[in-house]
Amino acid sequence: MIFELIADRLAAIGRAGLMRRRLAREGAQGPRIRVEGREYVAFCSNDYLGLANHPRVVEAAVVAARRHGIGQGASHLLSGHSAEHDRLESALAEFVRMPRALLFSSGYQANIGVITALAGPEDVVYSDALNHASLIDGVRLSRAQVVRYPHGDVDFLSRALASYGGGTRLVVTDGVFSMDGDIAPLPGLLDLCERHDALLVLDDAHGFGVLGPEGRGSPAYFSAQSPRLVYVGTLGKAAGVSGAFVAGAPDIVETVLQRARTYIYTTATPALLCAAVEASLQLIRDDEWRRERLRAHIGSLKRLLSDVEPRLGRSDTPIQPLVLGANARALDAAGALRERGILVPAIRPPTVPEGTARLRISLSAAHSEEDIARLTGALREACARGAEAHA
């Protein structure tokens, strides 16, 4: 009986056009990848600066592996923490101009850990309606009272903060929203937190390395600083490596270290990855040309598709959504692009709201101008064919 129930649920996922399939990439991450022996131009990675396969990052990891081995063998609070971790945490804190930083094994663990460490049943969390799943799960696990505010609606949030009192108040938001590519109204959110004695947890997974001077993220983009800001940066996207970190005031970071179950009860990140991130940080800081090229690609894509329906979303970041609506139409468009040797993922519910299935185009500084031109030409054909098929 239980196996029939599971089979029925899987069948329902398939009928709804929501079945996911993995691609088995052959070789390194990059603007061109091989899948099943065929080369594709890939617009489906978060390697925004093209650092995932950079020789200096790779060499740093190799040297560290020879010195420290592969696995840490224990959690940070036992014997897994090393001088490499200490050095990287200091470098990350300095990079984002915050007093202290704490390493996590993944962005998902960092988001869950920081929210559950700072909020509990007696507290209130205010969560943007389009937050990433890891933030949503962290809020649920905290068992705090939840106020879900409309996406980016500072006025609604202001009224909500004025209506609830007592306990810790946490405003939780993405910095750059992962499916729409828009940037959170950070100055307005911080102002509200100052006025209502709240903390702002900012998941800057898609802003770190990309936005602001030297790629220091969304706060630097807005020239925003505050001791109320709890910053979460991901190291597996623009940095090209793996892991994440939480940065903020010393007592806040220490509270996360002492209380976050996703930090306390997991094996420490390998030291070789710490060395790789240090090398990546130097490239992020020094190679402004990577962000300049990325901005040029964003401008070219928007210009070349300005007369195509449907229009690209209102995003000035490397995440460029093309909302097609129906699941089948998004799958058809992704399939048409794949036939032309281009990989762009079809994103469907529950990742995005019902009726907003889309192509999520991810741009990288490693792409060439010819790659962008090839993509736009293929998108024109796919959109025209899709409009006829689904008319």
Explain how this protein is built.
This protein is of the alpha/beta class and 391 residues long. The protein has a seven-stranded mixed β-sheet, with helices on both faces. It has a four-stranded mixed β-sheet with strand order 1-2-3-12. The chain has helices spanning 2-15, 55-68, 76-80, 83-95, 107-118, 133-142, 154-163, 186-195, 218-221, 250-259, 261-264, 271-286, 288-304, 327-339, 369-389, and strands at residues 25-26, 32-35, 38-42, 100-104, 124-128, 145-149, 169-174, 199-203, 229-234, 244-248, 319-325, 342-343, 346-347, 357-362. Helix 9 (218-221) links the parallel strand 8 (199-203) and strand 9. The chain folds into two domains: 24-49 and 288-389, Aspartate Aminotransferase, domain 1 (Alpha-Beta Complex); 55-286, Type I PLP-dependent aspartate aminotransferase-like (Major domain) (Aspartate Aminotransferase, domain 2), CATH 3.40.640.
In short:
The protein is built from 15 helices and 14 strands. By secondary structure, the chain is α/β, with parallel strands linked by helices.
Q: Key features?
A:
391 residues, alpha/beta, Aspartate Aminotransferase, domain 1, Aspartate Aminotransferase, domain 2, 2 domains, 7-stranded mixed β-sheet, 4-stranded mixed β-sheet, globular
